[in-house]
Amino acid sequence: MRLYEPETDGIWKWTKEGMIKIDDGAREHELVDLDEFDDVESEVDSNRISLTMERDLELFLYNNISSLDSSLDLPDDIESRQPAVESGRLDILAKDSDGAYVVIELKAGLARDQALTQLLAYMGDIAEQYNANTRGILVAHEFSDRLVRAAQLIPSVKLMKYTISFSFEPL
Fold first, then answer.
1. Average pLDDT of the chain, as a whole number
2. C-alpha separations of 112 from 7, 29, 74, 116, 167 in Å
3. Are 126 and 104 in contact (CB under 8 A)?
4. Domain housing 95
5. Gap between the Cα atoms of 80 and 70, Å rounded
6. Residue 87 in contact with residue 121, Cβ under 8 Å?
7. Does residue 92 fall inside a structural domain?
8. How confident is the model at residue 167 (pLDDT cuts 50, 70, 90)?
9. How many domains are there within the chain?
10. For the chain, where are the alpha helices, taking DSSP H only?
11. Is residue 82 a contact partner of residue 89, using CB atoms and an 8 Å limit?
């Protein structure tokens, strides 16, 4: 058993008909080498699993942005996935139906206090670069209490909790 690796397995997209391959993996991706985890008895490093989970979450949202907010779209005139700004590389940049830029920052597992600072810095960079209204969405499975209290005072920031569920059926 091994983990999915976009570099070797290609990039896949969920559609209503099921999974379709959209990239053969020939492009370069920033990935963690997980070959050492091929052995089921190997000790799994949770930091590496989190990184993979965040990439998978990013790919899902990039391909299904309206599942996060029905007003969101990924415009063709801007780099939407991992665009570089002065503060770093944000995860996804979208636009809402009002024309505002929406910075989406993803955290696998717990979003700690500094995730809010990171999101606000990216929002500031985008607002300055495009001279436009900007808001932010921080997506995580859990949020620190301090982050939640701080975000409540910032109307342009929305916290979204993701959940993962599996269902199984016999063939």
1. 80
2. 29, 26, 27, 8, 30
3. no
4. 68-161
5. 17
6. yes
7. yes
8. confident
9. 1
10. 6-9, 46-63, 113-130, 145-151
11. yes
What is the structure's pLDDT at 156? 97
Strands (E), 29-114: 84-85, 88-89, 92-95, 101-106, 110-111
Instruction: Give the up-direction half-sphere exposure of residue 20: CA atoms within 13 A in the CB hemisphere.
Output: 5
Query: By the 8 A CB rule, do 113 and 120 touch?
Result: no
What pLDDT digit, counting tens, does each position of 55-113 carry? 888 888 888 999 999 999 998 888 888 999 999 999 999 999 999 999 999 998 899 99
Look at residue 2 and tell me if it is in a domain: no
Averaged over 136-157, what is the pLDDT?
96
pTM: 0.68
CATH of the domain at 143: 3.40.1350.10
Identify whether 142 is part of a domain: yes
Residue 62 placed within a domain: no
Helix (H) or strand (E) segment spanning residue 143: strand 142-143
